[in-house]
Design goal:
Number of helices: 13
Helix content: 25-40%
Strand content: 15-25%
Strand order of the largest sheet: 8-11-12-13-14
Shape: globular
Mean pLDDT: 94
């Protein structure tokens, strides 16, 4: 949806993308704006309030925005990544603890009222006083499907993370068994052609080669310039390499930059070092399909400023296109403010 904005709904777009990484609360708003012809801030806010989409930990144990029915399908598929996070990040803190018992206790607490992670951890510590509250809350987050309830994620409002169980919030129970083949096909529809390593990077899972082998008769198979085997859906669009790609602004953590082991298809290794920071992944912009810089939006006293940081010299035509798209982004994000574009793009 980055070569041409799609004339479709938010729910259809989020479904096609197999969710949108969303630990930055406003990231999906900008990601959808860059992909859809019609994407106002109120549309996604309404979908969250009406529980048609939810924010939940899924692939790579990161927060994703997904349509409600996809939470049911994708949560069992993502469980190995969630389990691994507990086994690595919290290994010492959780040694010897009865994880199912903690999960059950946390689910009961959240059945009574919505809690922040800190509140959940503190309540659980009353029963397990020798354990870290953060680690206890992590057990519940990773073993019980939890959604982050509004106002978290609402445009212009925001708020602290508060959990509810996904089953209570949506009225839908997660699937009992993961449909691994379905998840892989969904990934290829959004991000193919892709190698086995690419699929595993997106999922935060390992040992998926047998799944691709089972699907092989249904897939188109290619090799890239390094001889690596790539899989795709037979009828998926595969534009000519010479097709001109328009400038697009991507939010923090956009899955285009996080869903392949080989990310050079969209960002050079040199530029990737400037995008990945200790605090996360910067918002970027694409020029002809490749990351060419980063951006940040600042708001203060009725003024909205788009700070653009190119990673390479831009041609005059590229600079004009970046500024034009940046002006459209400002009109979307801050329609009632005065607008400025700043940064090294102007030097």
């Amino acid at each position: 949806m980055l070569l041409e904005r799609a004339d479709t709904t938010i729910e259809e777009a989020v479904t096609h993308l197999v969710g949108m990484q969303a630990q930055a609360p406003y990231a999906p708003y900008f990601g959808l704006w860059s992909r859809l012809r019609r994407s106002g801030t109120t549309s996604l806010t309404g979908a969250l309030l009406e529980r048609r989409v939810v924010r939940i930990a899924l692939m790579r144990s990161t927060i994703h925005l997904v349509v409600t029915d996809d939470y049911r399908i994708l949560r069992p598929w993502a469980q190995p990544a969630l389990d691994r996070e507990l086994d690595t990040a919290f290994r010492k803190a959780l040694a010897g603890i009865d994880r199912p018992a903690v999960a059950e206790a946390g689910e009961a607490l959240l059945g009574a009222r919505h809690l922040t992670p800190a509140e959940l951890g503190a309540s659980l510590q009353e029963r397990w006083p020798d354990r870290e509250p953060r680690a206890l809350a992590a057990i519940v987050r990773n073993l019980v499907p939890l959604v982050q309830v509004p106002p978290r994620g609402l445009w212009g409002i925001g708020g602290a993370t508060r959990y509810a169980t996904a089953a209570d919030w949506t009225g839908v129970e997660p699937a009992a068994v993961a449909d691994v083949g379905h998840a892989v096909l969904r990934y290829l529809a959004a991000f193919g052609p892709a190698s086995v390593s690419d699929v595993q990077t997106w999922a935060g899972r390992t040992r998926l080669r047998p799944v691709l082998e089972r699907l092989r008769p249904r897939l188109a198979v290619f090799r890239n310039e390094y001889g690596v085997e790539l899989f795709d859906l037979p009828d998926a669009p595969r534009p000519d390499p010479d097709v001109a790609a328009p400038v697009r602004f991507l939010p923090e953590y956009d899955n285009v930059l996080a869903s392949h082991a080989d990310r050079t298809r969209v960002i050079s290794d040199q530029f990737r070092k400037r995008v990945m920071t200790r605090n996360g992944m910067r918002a970027t912009f694409l020029v002809d399909g490749q990351v060419a810089g980063a951006w940040k939006l600042h708001r203060a006293k009725g003024r909205a400023t788009l700070d653009i940081d190119p990673f390479r010299p831009l041609k005059a035509s590229e600079r004009r296109e970046v500024e034009d798209e940046g002006a459209r982004l400002l009109a979307f994000a801050a329609p009632d403010a005065r607008h400025d574009i700043e940064g090294t793009i102007r030097r």
